[in-house]
Fold this protein.
Amino acid sequence: MIVWINGPFGVGKTTLTKELCRRDPKARAFDPERIGWVLKRTVGRLKSGDYQDLPVWRSATVTAAAWQTRGADPLIVPMTVVRAPVLAEVFDGLRSRGHEVRHLLLDVSAPVLIDRVEHDDDDDPQAWRLDQLGAYLTARRDLRAHADAVLDTDDLEADEVADDAEAIIAAWRS
């Protein structure tokens, strides 16, 4: 099973992924951001915009995630993707290779997210995270409608989010 954890930048996808992997020795994390990082430094010099717009990122993400599933159950992918066609292409590619893909959306209200980002110990990407909030809010309704599960995190601490996500994944396994 591949669990794609989606949500706005700063919602806690990476924190949740680390905790789920700590709790479950069979779980493994895969971050497609690393593929994007490489592309930005190579192909990205030739093309402007988001690396998710590059077909090579989408196909490389499918190939790498499919390979990473070996020995992982589940493979956890923390990655913000707000454009439905991009998400569908990646999910369809993984499913065509025989993988079960589940989409877990970590949601949060704008005021709570802004507060979290502003109080994050890592203030380096703070402005960038806040700049991305509009794109998430625009896509929010569609993402909620097409997610396999939505976890509203407004009133939850990180360990509570992990407890709820763990229960959701357990239900998917049964």
About this structure: The two ends are 12 Å apart (CA to CA). Strands lie at 2-6, 28-29, 75-78, 101-107, 149-152.
